[in-house]
Write a structure and sequence with these properties.
79% of the residues lie in helices and 2% in strands. A two-stranded antiparallel ribbon has the order 1-2. The mean pLDDT is 90. Helix 9 crosses helix 11 (256-278) and helix 10 (234-252) packs antiparallel against helix 11 (256-278). It has 13 helices and 2 strands; from the N terminus they run H-H-H-H-H-H-H-H-H-H-H-E-E-H-H. It is mainly α.
Amino acid sequence: VSTAVAVVLLLAVVAYAIFGGADFGAGFWDLTAGGAERGAHPRDTIEHSIGPVWEANHVWLIFIFVILWTSFPEAYASITLTLFVPLTLAALGIVLRGASFAFRKAVVQLRHRRLFGAAFALSSVLVPYCMGAVAGGIASGRVPAGGQAGDPVHSWINATSILGGILAVAAAAYLAAVYLVWDARRLSDNEMTEHFRRRAVISAGVVGVLGVIGIFVLRADAPYLFQGLTSRALPLVILGTLCGVAALVLLLRGAPRGARLLAVFAVASVIIGWAVAQWPYILPQTLTFSAAASPSGTLTAVLIVVV
């Protein structure tokens, strides 16, 4: 039963990455769109694209926390006690991002719009970075078992966490750019289609470079994860790489629909590959999913509710 709940937790993380991550990535492109005049058109396209779901995707994050603390309470205690700094920064960033996005539309004066726009864009970068840093702290074994607090600084300021944070920002920007290419084309906006297509290609290249750098970082700083990625999770790593390359080819050829699906598969494959590489541990080499699991009755109730 604990394995089934672990799979549910993994799928929720994937869902948050490909939906909520794209929202954060849109904020990155908002940040880099340029001044008030030059960046007006891209920002209008971004607002139109994320408007219907601009905060709804955080439901996945709530779902993740509820599943984690209900089903694996010891791991939840260790993670939150150790990584409370980046988790708190992420929570504040989510609140600031949502408020700023709403207020930017309501205010009239240009300086106020710029202020709220900057807060929205900067928090859209802060949140995925913190989430990636949290993942890096867990993956590198810096979160102790037993519901104990680890080092509140080095647990998220380390080589793997920095890599995870930057990679999360880059992957979110990549997903957002691919989605925005498709959305701009649906709106018959050729200028924005080309605008975001270029950015999707560039961000895909950045993600690829970070992936190569990550090989050396994980080998030195997270050996258990590195060993898993180069053995049992290797097929998923290869699949993610192939999907990323195929999406890039389709973007260069102007086929955003297929590129969008392949980009989703690429990001999802990397996240699932991380989980497979780390299995059976929820906290690498110290706490397994089965050891951290709640009583079977609780897990069964969780699965019933999920269904």
